Amino acid sequence: MSSDESVLAAEGISVRRAGQVILDDVTLSISAGSRTLIRGPSGAGKTTLFSVLGLLETPDTGRLLVDGTDASTLPERRRAQLRRDAIGFVFQDFQLVPDLTARENALLPQTHGGSHEADWVDDVLGRLDIADRADRYPATLSGGEKQRVAIARALANRPAVVLADEPTGQLDPETTDQVMDLLVALHESADTALVTISHDPALASMFERTVRLQAGGLVSET
Ligand SMILES: Nc1ncnc2c1ncn2[C@@H]1O[C@H](COP(=O)(O)OP(=O)(O)OP(=O)(O)O)[C@@H](O)[C@H]1O
């Protein structure tokens, strides 16, 4: 379900690194419950934009509003709280903790001081069809299973928005379809906005909106 309410708004974001402009005056608004694909060639600045939108990196100029809060001026501790409560992350390389089970990985955002709804995480693991693997360690899971655990972790605190950076980059085409179908179904039922960064054109049909980044700037939208 989409609404006009913005859960993530980047206003005039610019990032420079080593004298080079990486992001150039990027303005982007993500509505509650919406589904956006950010595409662009290698080196366009996609991962940098992902880091800025996820409060992992501070832009040199511009404002970032997360779930109505201006994150630009917050001290780091409040930024970390906002990141934990309002944003879920899915990474290309899964980034699961190797010595925690699948269920413990999925519960991490809650054990780090978020909400305490283990039932919700168990429900999500069930809907991802990995409840029977919940007590296994990441090393014993396939790539698709690891990414499903990462999706459960991303949704653990029922965030306003899930950010996914090349979530299918390490998966074969069949597993890509399965994982994307699950990600889309779960973001809809959790009423979370979904922002996915990918260079894979095959994903475009699953998104209601595509934004294109080139040489650090947004060049077109469909
Ligand atoms: N810390 C940094 N210092 C200097 N240059 C950087 C830094 N981080 C990124 N860059 C440069 O910024 C540009 C954008 O990088 P970014 O990783 O955001 O692109 P991308 O679109 O995600 O690329 P890819 O699809 O290849 O992952 C690249 O030219 C990169 O070399």
From TrEMBL:
Start and end residues of each ABC transporter domain: 8-222
Record's keyword annotation contains Transcription regulation: no
UniProt keyword annotations, A-Z: ATP-binding, Nucleotide-binding, Transport
Keyword Transport: yes
InterPro entries, sorted: AAA+_ATPase (IPR003593), ABC_transporter-like_ATP-bd (IPR003439), ABC_transporter-like_CS (IPR017871), ABC_transpr_LolD-like (IPR015854), MacB-like_ATP-bd (IPR017911), P-loop_NTPase (IPR027417)
Any one GO MF annotation of this record: ATP binding
Origin superkingdom: Archaea
Protein name (record): ABC transporter ATP-binding protein
Organism whose genome encodes this protein: Natrinema soli
Lineage of source species: Archaea, Methanobacteriati, Methanobacteriota, Stenosarchaea group, Halobacteria
